[in-house]
Each structure stands twice: as structure tokens, then as C-alpha cells.
Amino acid sequence: DESRSIGGLGIPNEFFVQMRAAPLLVLDVPREARVQYLAADYGRHDAGELASAVLRLRKRLGGLVTKEALGAIAENDMVRMVELVLAYYDKTYGYGLEDRKGVTIKAEGTDAKVNAALVLAAVKTSIPA
User: What is the distance between the alpha carbons of residues 107 and 25, in angstroms, rounded to a whole number?
Assistant: First the structure.
């Protein structure tokens, strides 16, 4: 449920209109699997850049969560940082999906091949050609 921009990049209007009109598929990956996957990924990034990214979200995260997330980065506790920030993102995306009907696809983990097969199967069975 992206908006017209992702970070500093804009989605071309024609593509955005097509995205909004297309059938909605929601890949539901368990939170713990997402946390572990993201923590491993973010753990490879520069701590200063991660801190800057968290600071850009400070108004949305709130002072306490921002402070805790920055502390987790300083302690190299990527799991804790992801848990804190993911709560904000899950709430935001959940709000954006509230009034949209779609097909939810339950996944067990973050394996891209497995999840792609689940999505393809859902497309074949639930979206008219």
C-alpha cells in the first residue's frame, strides 16, 4: 500500500493509478520472521545512516520510541530497533489497507521463492483472467 512516493522517489502517475486499480494481494509474513529478516539486513548497514533514518521518523515514532531505537542501534541490537520501527510501519500500512478489499496470502517465512509461489497460486485461483 505505497503512496505516490517511496522515500524520496516518486511513482509515475499512470503507474500509480494502475497500482490502485489492480487487485490487491497482501502477503502476510509472521512478524517474528520479518523482524529477524530485517534485523539481519539492517545489521549490514552503517549505524550512522540507520540513526539518521530513525531521526527522520521521530515525529511519527514519538520521542521515547526514537530514543529507544537510537539506543538499540548504538548497542548493535538490530532486532530491538526493527521491533520498534516495525510497529510504526505496520500501523501505517494497516491503516492504508483498512478500506481496501483484497486477498490475504499466509506465508510461513521470508523465503522469496516460496512466497512467490504462494502469490502465483493465489493469483491463479482468486483473480479472474
Answer: 12
CA distances (Å), origin 51, targets 34, 71, 77, 106, 122: 20, 9, 12, 32, 38
Residues in the chain: 129
Instruction: Give the integer Cα–Cα distance in Å for 23 and 80.
Output: 34
Q: What is the pLDDT of residues 31-62, one digit of tens each?
A: 999 999 999 999 999 999 999 999 999 999 99
Contact between 25 and 118 (Cβ < 8 Å): no
2: left (phi over 0), alpha (psi -120 to 50) or beta: beta
Handedness of CA 15, 20, 23, 24 (dihedral sign): positive
